[in-house]
Amino acid sequence: MATFLLEIGTEELPATFVSEAIQQWQELIPTTLTEAYLTNDAVKVYGTPRRLAVVIEGLALKQPDREEEIKGPPAKAAFKDGKPTKAAEGFAKKQGVELKDLEIRPTEKGDFVFVNKKIQGKQTTEILSELIPEWIDKLEGKRFMRWADGDIKFPRPIRWLVALLDDEILPINLENGSEKITSDRLSYGHRVLHPQLIEISQAKDYVEELRKAYIEVDDRQRKNQIEQQIQAAAKKVNGKAEIPAELLAEVTNLVELPTAVVGKFDEEFLILPAEVTKTVMVKHQRYFPVLKSTKSSQSETDLLPYFITISNGDPEKSEIIATGNERVIKARLADGQFFYKADLAKPLENYLPELEAVTFQAKLGSMGEKVKRIVNIAKLIAEQLEVSKEESKNIERAALLCKADLVTQMVYEFPELQGVMGEKYARAGGETEAVATAIFEHYLPRGAGDILPETISGQIVSLADKLDTLVSIFGLGMLPKGSGDPFALRRAANAVVNITWSANLPLNLHQLLEQTAANFIKIYSEANSELLAQLYDFFLQRIRTILQEEKNIDYDLVNAVLGDNDSEYQERGLKDLLDVRNRAVFLQNIRQNGMLEKIYETVNRSTRLAAQGELDKIQLAPVEVVDSKLFKSESELAFYDALVELVPQTEISQKTRNYQQLVDALAKIAPTVSNFFDGPESVLVMDPDPKIKQNRLNLLGILRNNARVLADFGEIVKS
């Protein structure tokens, strides 16, 4: 067993690529070693801004010898009249065996020629020489580049290679045009603290050798060090650090030896909204904000006039580093202060005319036109949900002002603050709290896992904004294709469903889409002719996905509540999103508690047979469609009587959405239905007499229709 080291030395890599490359190698390298029959004890992948490395411990020095069964041509092609043909000779030659070693064996597709081939294991050095270029070449990421006059592509130029098997150099050559990079045992330490070459004598000593040269190659160790240093630095100024996960991940791969440095800014900048200051720090400067340990009042800012940056330089120069960063943040915050004061000089409403100069989409006109559509859609939703007059007033006002901050100086400079600044400026301009909050909330959710709007005004304006985008972009025929979704339409549709479910809004999405699409077509005469059908289908796809992936509902139960090409069920689902969710969750629960199994057999069997009849799927009562005079068995009469008793229970469940009552009633009728099928007085449903046959199919159809109030049992798969 040996230890192998590969290090690829580069110019400074993008932080995102370092983390992506580590993950990719953690999957790729063990897989390729297994495929090459090379056993090992551990594969450890490391990365810094200047290097990617892998240390493989307990690596076998040679592949094991092995036997491999290889399938050849069909026997009838390999042998004719008992003699080998050219096909057999060619197969034997290719595999390096004698004709006598060929065997004929039966398979599902007939007799074929096989050979058991003994393969002698290769030396590990030979295999690694083949695998290493593959490991480098298969790394993926954004913005790969070529350098010099070669064809190798990588995020940054490769400058050195270290390849050691224990203490021996494994010769590897990367040819990049006229440039040739040859492996050695020489690496580089920290640019500032140890700029000279370092010699790695043993592969197993790699991590410690680099630590001596002021490099921490283990990204997990760097991350822990950064977190500990940040919190310790914050305590020194009587605060606590805010450590956004994304920023921590980025900074971890921007440094090779982290040093937390505390900087200070003027307290006058604390009058800025905390979101502005944090945006400058986190998004633009990669600083960690420092917060007060406690706040004495709700109105008091939680920020302290400090920030923490992670330096990759000399720790002894921390004061100089802090001073330089302080100059930068002062300039940025001064800009923010100027924008803030200038924006507050006029009320938010006065910015509305400027939205006419901001393009939403070339064919859809300005952002001002979009706002008008949002206002109209918000009114439709408010009317449908029957909100109060006061709420309607707030909703209309919030819809009117929701995009106004896009033309403020602050949002122009910091686009990520859209909505945030709208809320601040609305409140400062005397708008109601409901309006101000809704302006911020209408952008929610901003991505997967984000919070949802909590106020009714915010929920309705958010729905209106997203529905306008969906209807408008679909109206132009610009549907998402594959992974391409430039207008984030899937996210918008998901948000519509999740907001509706989270707030338990009794929204008739089917009607709302119909109204919104009709209004769009009035304005844009060249609108997509299949607009409405495509919107319905798109939302049904999103509902399916959310139920399965976010609500963890089994696929067949999702099909059971939405139907498979069942227009009646699909329309029902879009008209009542809450009912779709509740029925799906309920079905999942009764599957888990065993109740579904008690009714499944009889209801599913009835549903499948009823499909051969002519009864519609709406009729619930048996009186009008079943003729008791055609009964030939007591089991038919019992089935009929049980259906008569079932109908009132179904109607109550339908009205109250209490599906447990329906399931209990179906469980009660199950033995009667079972007796109808298989009991001592069972009947043949498909009777030769067409009237009797149809009468019995109608009995089953009535049971199916009552069960359909909950689900299409024909779509449910037996557990």
The number of distinct β-strands equals 20
Count of DSSP-assigned helices: 25
* Range of strand content: 5-15%
C-alpha Rg, in Å? 35 Å
> Percent range for helical residues?
40-55%
Task: Summarize the structure in words.
There is one protein chain. This protein has 719 residues and is an alpha+beta fold. Helix content is 49%, strand content 15%. The strands form six sheets. Strands 1, 2, 3, 9, 10, 11 and 12 form a seven-stranded mixed beta sheet that branches. A four-stranded antiparallel beta sheet has the order 15-17-18-16. Strands 4-8-7 form a three-stranded antiparallel beta sheet. A hairpin with a 2-residue loop joins strand 2 and strand 3 (51-59). It is flat. The model has no long low-confidence stretch (mean pLDDT 94).
Quick overview of this protein structure:
With 719 residues, this protein is an alpha+beta fold.
Task: Give the helix/strand layout.
Elements: E1 2-10, H1 15-35, E2 42-48, E3 51-59, E4 66-74, H2 75-78, E5 79-80, E6 83-84, H3 86-95, E7 103-107, E8 110-119, H4 124-137, E9 158-165, E10 168-169, E11 173-176, E12 179-184, E13 186-188, E14 197-199, H5 206-212, H6 219-236, E15 239-241, H7 245-252, E16 259-264, H8 274-285, E17 288-292, E18 303-311, H9 318-343, E19 359-361, E20 365-366, H10 367-385, H11 389-401, H12 409-413, H13 420-428, H14 433-441, H15 456-475, H16 489-503, H17 509-523, H18 531-549, H19 555-562, H20 567-575, H21 577-592, H22 595-610, H23 634-656, H24 659-678, H25 690-708
Parallel strand pairs: 9-12
Antiparallel strand pairs: 1-3, 1-9, 2-3, 4-8, 5-6, 7-8, 9-10, 11-12, 13-14, 15-17, 16-18, 17-18, 19-20
